[in-house]
Amino acid sequence: MSESTTADASIRDTPESPGVRPGKGAALGAMFLMATSAIGPGFLTQTSVFTAQMGAALGFAILISILIDIAVQLNVWRVLTVSGKRANELGNIVLPGLGWALAALVFIGGVAFNIGNIAGAGLGTNAMFGLDVKLGGLLSALVGIGIFLSKKAGVALDRIIVILGAVMILLMLYVAIASNPPVGEALKQTVLPDDIDFFVITTLVGGTVGGYITFAGAHRLIDSGITGPENAGRVTRISVSGVIVTGVMRILLFLAVLGVVATGVALAEDNTAADAFHQAAGEVGLRMFGMVLWAAGVSSVVGAAYTSITFVTTQNIQPRNRNLLTVAFIAVCAVIFLILGTAPQTLLIFAGAFNGVILPIAFALVLWVAWKRRDLLKGYSYPKWLLVVGAVVLVLEIYLGWNSLTGIADLWN
């Protein structure tokens, strides 16, 4: 497969030719599709808001969320790619109608998250240029639509995502150093926290592997032909790498905001993340953060739209038709965002919490296939230790999801 074809698979199904081993481009595309979907406006906003609320104690929630993320992605990516079937397809095979029910939940969660992504992009333009959040969000949605209307967008998008990921990490590192956070206290609170908030943990998990994000990379790998038992080890490395990228980003952002909060500065409630960077790095920091937030918003709009549409279409759909459906998805999300007029920060936190509630349902399906449906895994002997770890995480997710329902209700009261 050529480089351009491989890269373009991030937007259009381009299965590998039979007998040809998929290249590194498809693997990197899947990893960064998951990572950039996770490292979006919701990710930045949630981490900043919760750091301002909890201080160093948020370190414990971040640690738990990273461990859960790894356990979830190891199981989800392996089951889906070994079977060669998307999550909704597996659901319908296991129990007729289950796949469509899951698709509906993920689709609704994708809409909620994409409204938040558009809102977050609006926050980014506000930080950069002082534009009205609604106007900035609308313009950002149009950029996302333009990407899916362009036949060659995939090549540029994959490269830009890698560059933006590096820029975001470097920016986080710079601000984390500039803000001079109390690292010792953060390490202590990570192990022995003064405060544990289940809603916060569920929201962090939902923002990185909840809802559509759980399946973004795995569905991309399936579309790129990286499937079957022979690719199980490769898929494991890709999935863990993606979680590590998001984990590093969250830790650096946590330390950056913590350094500001530790000085006693009261951050703005309507755009906490932007204010934190402004306080830490001055006017330049604010503008740079706005640029990264906008880029994260647009890339997440693309990731959410792409993955959500894969849940309500088959693998045989024509690329052009799926692109048009994706354009419609983004357009509807933009209209809802303009109509609701809800504070963007509230939307972003709600989206993560909602996806955290969806996660136990989808994860239970994956574990059932791994445990009972070896026929769907082409005879692959699923590692028992991975299944046990997944079962433990599932119980924890159910508990966290139940507790987060109260948090969601409180958020909108």
From TrEMBL:
Subcellular location as annotated: Membrane
Organism: Corynebacterium variabile
UniProt keyword Membrane present: yes
Cross-referenced Pfam families: Nramp
Membrane association type: Multi-pass membrane protein
Protein name: Mn2+ and Fe2+ transporters of the NRAMP family
GO biological process: iron ion transmembrane transport
UniProt superkingdom: Bacteria
InterPro entries xrefs: NRAMP_fam
Keywords: Membrane, Transmembrane, Transmembrane helix
Chain residue ranges for the region called Disordered: 1-22
GO molecular function ontology, one term from the record: manganese ion transmembrane transporter activity
The keyword Membrane belongs to this UniProt entry's keyword annotation: yes
GO cellular component: plasma membrane
Record-annotated membrane-spanning stretches: 25-44, 50-72, 93-115, 127-148, 160-178, 198-222, 243-268, 288-312, 324-341, 347-370, 382-402
